[in-house]
Amino acid sequence: MLSGAVTFGLGGHFAATQFIHDQQARHLEELTEVVTRRSEFAVDFAAASLDQLASRGLATCDPAALQAIRLHVYRRSAVKDVRLVNADGSVICSAYSETLEFDKGWVDRGDMLASRDAGLMLFRVEQFGGDALGVLRDIGNNKALVAILGINSSLFDIMPAELRAHGQVLLALTNGAQLGEFMLDADKALPHPVDFEKRSARYPLRTTIRIDRTVLSTWNSQAYWPAIALSLALGALFGLLLSRTRRVEGPVADLDRALARGEFSPYFQPIFDLKTRQIKGCEILVRWLRADGSVVPPMNFIPLAESSGRIQGMTWQLLGRALADLQPHLKADKEFKLSLNVVPKHLLSAGFIETLRSTVGAAKVSTRQIVIEVTERDELDDLVRAAAVVSELRDHGFRVAIDDVGVGHSGLSRLKALGANTIKIDKFFVDTIAVDASTTTIVEMLVALARDLSMSVIAEGIETEEQVRALISCGVEEGQGYLVAAPLPVKEFVELLERRKSAGLDGTTQKAALVA
To answer: Does residue 513 surpass a pLDDT of 50?
Structure first.
């Protein structure tokens, strides 16, 4: 028994130590991803602004054009200046010519760094008040527009409280030119630094989080004893599994049986107007209701369904049941929208549009009431084909939304090419919008770009009134989240709609109240 205890104790110790280390590394890698995404959004924001100016024919030094550019810059706090430059990068004129006095120097085009978009280049602008980021967009063969972005260090203030005084967040170009930094005590060197680095796949940007190694030895150490207990439980479970010699394909077979039995049920979460709280539509969310009455959460089966290809059959089954469940309400309220999540591989699969049309047509529901939400768990590898599919969907009356914006794979420049109707801001941003100024800045940029692209915006995961007020101040008009309701089975969802209608929260009463 003593020997067994020592063996399990050592095994648990090593397992716990490795577990804590892996959790720390994953957390810090996620934080570098966040900073990288925020930086990409800033560049996307600048690129979209330059594209808009170019499309309006404002790439000139005429006084009227410069005045229009100044107004454009005034409405976008992240952009400090817009300059017209020659093909070699030399400045012709500037919207705010006085900002040229703050430049320590200016780089030639040969020193600028190319991005995945061939017509977009990035470079550091050295200024007396701190470095800025230059974003160059080619306009024809002889000219280019440059946006000067101020780098706000608050965008990098993402460290957990335990690490803020012992860490450093750096943003730089891939040539080593530093753009921004966050560190509580800039004069204090980290004694035993360890770096976590992330490079952008679209732009020549590199994010580094540097942490004192000695602090990591105690951070999140409370997981040590639970991890030891978990290692013992896993050992027992492993032995049990071996004794039962269950086949590897068992979990997939479980999915197949559940599909055959119709155990995947649609739940509905309201999408509502932030100001009036009128329910404008809902999103279909899946729950696995086993025959024994237990409920399996999506995180426990959706990844397997996607990797095994069962997600397509599951999606069609959910849509058919949801249309049958809500058909009376959809026919009574022609403005009510029903949203369905579709993974990129399914969207691009053969026969997707034909099956969608026949399923919706069989339910005698208008296509304009159906919203296809393209999820970003997988990247849209073939953007041209995806844009063609989205265009055809819109031609048939369907609406298309991009889910998980801000944390998924698509940059805003890709959103423009895709041609969707709506973007959905991920819950990650909503969680901190009422307390984090940098999150507010990002959401404002998203809303401004969505308006430029004639897209609507929905915020996900709303739980508090403070979040609603912050989102409204940023220009967001619609949202969903537990503040109004959790995902509900059809009976409870219909009862919710009826209660709100009886309470005077239907569309007609709301409009009358607003007019009054």
So the answer is: no
